[in-house]
Every structure is written in C-alpha cells, then in structure tokens.
Design a protein that fits this description.
Blueprint lengths: L1 E8 L3 E7 L2 H14 L4 E10 L1 H17 L10 E3 L3 H22 L3 H41 L2 H13 L15
Antiparallel strand pairs: 1-2, 1-3, 2-4
Helix pairs in contact: 2-3
Amino acid sequence: MAIIYMAQGANGLFKVGMTSALSSRKNTLKKEFSKRGDVLTKIEPIAEVKDDFARSVEYRLIGYVRDLGFTPCSGREWFRGVAFDDIKVKAPQVIKEAIRFTKRFYKTPQEWEEIKAERKREALAAEEARRVWRAEAEAKARTRRLIRAGSHRCFEYIACAALDGMSSLDMPTLKKAPA
C-alpha cells in the first residue's frame, strides 16, 4: 500500500507526494524543504491506496492543484501559496475519481496473461482458417485445370468423391496421361 500525502512549509511551500513509509519520508521532507528555503510545518496522509493506483492518484492530485491555478515551482509536485485545508477537503473526491478512472484501464498480470492467451488462440484460429481456405482454393484450381484440359478422369474422381462423401481436398492430384 502507498500513502498519498500533502506537506506544507511555513513560507507557503506545498508538496503532494506518495510514500510507503510516512515517518521516514517526513525526515527527508524536512531536508527538502530546507533546501528550498522553507521549514516543514505539517505533513498529513490523505489516503492509503493500492500500489497499482498510487502513481495515477498522485498525478491526478497534482493535476488538481495545477488546475486551481497554482504553477509548480522547483519540480512538478512542489507549489507555492496553496491553501492546505482547501485541498485537503477536496482531495478524497479527487482520489476516488482517479481510482475509478484507473480501474477501468488497469489489468492485473494474470488478466494480461489471459488476454495474451486469447489473442494467441485467435491468431491460431485465423491461421487455420487461412490454411483451409488456401487448400480449398488449390483444390478448386486443380479441378478447373483438369476440366480445361478435358480430362474425363476429373469427372470420375469428382463423382466418386461425392458418392463417398469426400471433399475435393481429399482428391489426389490428377495428371493427364500422355497421348
């Protein structure tokens, strides 16, 4: 599980991010805030989501802050002058929408394997259909050649095949006897 969090500094620096361990991330954030000339004042977890959805949820929350008119400073997830409490109120709805959207397109590894297997079965069935079609086309062409050549044996084979329930695919290739 991943934790989506928001952090704010004393001078208005704001960050949206994700982590697997909020306590260790807090120590790192203190250093990052100080590098940017601010002091970390609060960090709050907003949601705990499955790892599969964490990145898309984080991006959607960052996008939401950007859509409010705040431009990123010092990286894509750092902003200045954001009202922490306003974002915190709206964040659960934004996260819920992001998860719902991601679920529509997300597939587990097992689902991908099933999709690949189905595609492979379809490809094999299509290849088999092409092979049968080619064989039938060759048999028809062979029959036409025999008819054009005037071979009486062609009609005998066709009649016998029809009586025996054989298809034209089962017929042997006929060669015209030398004259």
